[in-house]
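Quick one - first record:
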Amino acid sequence: MQSNALVVNDLTKRYPDFVLDKVSFSVPCGTIVGLIGENGAGKSTTINAVLGMISRDSGSIELFGEADTQSNDSIRNQIGVVFDGNNYPDVLSAQKLNRVLREIYRTWDERKFFDLLKKMSLPADKKIKEFSKGMQMKLSIAAALSHNSRLLILDEATSGLDPVVRDDILDMFLEFVQDESHSILVSSHITSDLEKVADYIVFIHKGKVVFCKSKDELRYKYGIIRCGAAQFDAIDNEEAIAYRKQDYEWEVLVADRDQARRKYPKAVIDPASIDEIMLLYVKGESK
């Protein structure tokens, strides 16, 4: 079995006011990879380059073991894409959308599409413009799953949705990757969603990859030391990934909180959420 659905290596794209700088990461088969970063960090640029929607200045992109496949329709048909907002003309109904998409995708599975509509309680004859945002997103995901996709690429697909709809969609993602030939790359600023479903996290900041790590390493190993000035001065510079001064304490991000507890028994050391890790990398300083 192919070990990676997607490999991005040294992807570079230059604009007058922004550079996507040698971005590298992979999406192993059977996994969900979360792409995080502040607005303007380069997440959408990366996704657009992977999809061949923009040209790249340098670097390589490999899909399902094949390199540089922008013009390979058989490979592209195996990718389901969902963007934030309505992905299809809102004058269509789901029924009419089915007729359009079966002409576009050679692998379109009409029965699966209508089964998914039923499962998601989506009306087939109602115009998309009459759908709520959550219904529109579910329709887009149903379409993405109905042409035998092996890789889903989602750009802020859960943005602006209520918690119940988001939870339904996250469950669909988890169900999709139960098949180990399936994979998902999902860009999201809602890090709590990624804490629930992602296997790996790729953090992009100012066009560069800060880290690619397993979610479990971030959740179960990283920590935040909260301490006063005297304790802060005693912390080994090599152990402090980033720090920042709050009103009454210092916050110090460390990669091994158990080790830090043994070394600094008097300090308060908390688990770090992905949100907190990202904030300290972006807003913190290095010792």
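second record:
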Amino acid sequence: MKPLIKLMPLVLVLAALATAAGARADERPPNVVIFFTDDQGFGDLSCYGHPTIHTPHIDRMAAEGMKLTNFYVASPVCSPSRAALLTGCYPKRVGMHKHVIFPPYNYGLHTDEHTIADMLKAEGYATGCFGKWHLGHRPGLLPTDQGFDAYFGVPYSNDMSTFHREMNTGYKFNLPLLRGHEVLEWEPDQHELTKRCTEEAVKFIEQNKDKPFFVYVPHAMPHFPIYASKDFAGKSPRGLYGDVIEEIDWSVGQVLQALEEHGLDDNTLVIFSTDNGPWKPFKQLGGSAGPLRGEKGTNWEGGQRVPCVIRWPGKVPAGTVTRGLTRSIDLLPTIAELTGGKLSDRPIDGGSIKGLLLGEPGAQPASDTFLYYSSRGELTGIRKGAMKLLFAGNEAKGGPLLYNLEVDISEEWDLAKKHPEHVEELKALASKLNEEITANARPTRVVKETLWEWPGKKPDDPNPNKQGRP
């Protein structure tokens, strides 16, 4: 019995240490996971009404968390929208408003900008990005230059490759798969992109389970051309597009499972959204905006109102719906308030929606106003409360258009002639807000050097980067 008696104090010490370690884990600030898909529509999830696409894991997030039905991204195209998500700014404020970045372009999001990753890294978070970046691919512009410790994915859209696109300069560009700054493969098998990025994200969670982490998963799908792995191809009644969305849903499930396995589920904020609306010209190979009018590239609701589901067990009330106006630019300040992170002294356009997410009585959105900018960065309209005014661009070429979005979600009934006072009031407010953003806009970063030589480079073209910034 004596050896057993001698062991008892050691057992008690180990038990106490384990209990203390568990307490410390519970006391850590929350982990943050953001899924940000590419060109997925408002109506492409079963929890948002799709009748045949099956998304049980995202539906579970909605059942155990909150669904946002008036959530807007700041641009109807990729690069500006991603810049807004990470910086809390309208793209024009950070110089990223002029459409998307193509392989020849020599600029990107300035490293002086304070991203979600920068903020959380300063608080001791491990930070990883797994998927499509599309905010600059020159030296100093990739995720590991913008606050991320680790990066695995493609630097721009999956159609910017030799196989799918030849630029009008006659120069063929290739799609690299990167780890950090290193090219792992040229023209990776896109059937496996969703799976591989998911596996990397899960591995990162496993490696950093003992400290707070930020995992950003900006999947390259369902941007056209679309691909699904063999485990999902041919499975959805919606066809290939349904296969792709259901594989993305599987990806969400894999991350949720990893959080549960490591006891991190109750201390992790998980956000699922997308960068803009669906690319409808591809018909059955594109997505659905549900009841919303329009598509990617437009300022109709279908171009910028997107699904957003947020889950944090025990903190975000289960099975709730937020109908108030919310915006991707609100996520940075919200995450700052939830984690104790510090915002920089640079002006931003978003505000915290912490109260809404946590179900605090009487909580209101950060703002009841949203500015619409075209895919080329022109101010085209404004929403304030229920009223939306479009006064420029292709959508309003016949004159200003005014809609009550609470009554008319599909933008069918123009009220401009009936309520000219609303038109003038909203036009003046939009102009005032845009003037401030324009006056205080910050530059992008321009980099002449390249990180790699594309395998498709033509021998008689010594300077493939001659186009510079558009």
